[in-house]
Amino acid sequence: MEVPEGATYARCRYCSAESFVDLSGALLHQVIRIAVPRARVPGLVKARAREAGWADAVVAALTLTYEPVWEIESPDGRRLCISARPGPEGRFTLVRMPGGERAFVEPDAPRSAGEWLEPELAPESLAEVAARATGRPIAIKTVRLIHHPIYTGKVRVAGKTLEFRLDALSGEVDVDWPVETTYRRRNLAWLITAAMVAAATFLPLPLAALAVVLLAGLTARALQRPITAPRAQRS
């Protein structure tokens, strides 16, 4: 018998008998269906790289990973999501509730392609973690383990290899892009100015005048476009 999400009654498709759905104390496993196909990932990553100012990005590796998230529901219908794996600081924190279309999955059923990460936070500790994160006790009626599909991989840009994450539902890309710290046109202008001063000082007057005119033309051409500021680090 398949039970739709949020249903109060479920109907048997063989005998049409209806049953009341009581999920009190239940532990459900659900997987979110992928909305961004694998073939679109390189294009999305390259598009974000161009927005950050890097047009030569190349996706070098790509893996589909299902990250576990605990979703708890209180008797009053309020829901909270807690990461089932610790973050960078080693803590289990509240996370944004994932959207997308969900499907029930059996815990011991064969898994589809991709790496399915196991939760490191036990369901017995959810009440304590939720209370610590919200600052008040949380009554738990239903617990769901949501498997959230995430693409992870590596992208080469500016001679560096960076790691990225791409949400398979929204297409959002998370990556630390290199910061452009050089101001090439400004530095070139200073260099040409110094050359003009040196030419006027050490060359004979006719040659100095010609050199100054040529260097002034190069300076004007170099400063036609505005100076590039440092790029944002994340996108």
What features would you describe in this structure?
The chain is of the alpha+beta class. The protein folds into two domains: 24-175, no CATH class; 184-222. The protein has four helices and ten strands, in the order E-E-E-H-E-E-E-E-H-E-E-E-H-H. The chain has helices at 41-51, 126-134, 184-202, 205-222, and strands spanning 9-11, 18-20, 27-32, 58-73, 79-83, 102-104, 115-116, 142-157, 160-167, 173-175. The strands form two sheets. Strands 3, 4, 5, 6, 7, 8, 9 and 10 form an eight-stranded mixed sheet that branches. The longest helix has 19 residues, at 184-202.
Describe the structure concisely.
The chain has 235 residues and is of the alpha+beta class. Helix content is 24%, strand content 28%.
Task: Provide the β-strand percentage band.
Answer: 25-35%
- How many discrete structural domains? 2
Structural class: alpha+beta
Helix content: 10-25%
How many whole angstroms does the radius of gyration measure? 29 Å
Number of helices: 4
Note poorly predicted spans.
Answer: 226-234
Number of strands: 10
SSE series: EEEHEEEEHEEEHH
Mean pLDDT: 82
What general outline do the C-alpha atoms trace? Answer: elongated
Largest sheet entry: 8 strands, mixed
Measured distance between first and last alpha carbons: 44 Å
Main attributes?
alpha+beta; 8-stranded mixed beta sheet; elongated
Strand and helix layout:
Layout (H helix, E strand, L loop, with lengths): L8 E3 L6 E3 L6 E6 L8 H11 L6 E16 L5 E5 L18 E3 L10 E2 L9 H9 L7 E16 L2 E8 L5 E3 L8 H19 L2 H18 L13
Parallel strand pairs: 3-8, 4-7
Antiparallel strand pairs: 1-2, 3-6, 4-5, 4-8, 8-9, 9-10
Helix pairs in contact: 3-4
